[in-house]
Amino acid sequence: MSVAKVIEVISKSKISFEDAIKQGVSRASETVNEVTGAWVKDQSLEVSNGKITSYNVLLKITFVLKASSKGKSK
């Protein structure tokens, strides 16, 4: 049996939405083990003087929780 958890991560890039997604997943994978998927919940832009300055994404990152040793016999 496996149990998964979902966390939200906000990521920004000056390059593109795709780059923001890659950065968000990569960074989450550095601190959370067993990342199995991601869902882009929202996208937005920051604009200054009529030009895009930042591509922002809100990601839902899914990861599998470690098996508990509770209830296992030794």
Secondary structure topology:
Elements: E1 4-13, H1 17-31, E2 35-48, E3 51-64
Antiparallel strand pairs: 1-3, 2-3
Architecture overview:
With 74 residues, the protein is of the alpha+beta class. It has one domain (4-64): 2-Layer Sandwich (Dodecin subunit-like), CATH 3.30.1660. It has 1 helix and 3 strands; from the N terminus they run βαββ. The radius of gyration is 16 Å and the shape is elongated. The model has no long low-confidence stretch (mean pLDDT 92).
- Strand % is over 45%
CATH architecture classification = 2-Layer Sandwich
Number of helices: 1
Distance between the termini: 19 Å
The domain tally reads 1
* Main beta-sheet annotation: 3 strands, antiparallel
Major sheet: order of its strands? 1-3-2
List keywords for this structure.
three-stranded antiparallel β-sheet, Dodecin subunit-like, 74 residues, 1 helix, alpha+beta
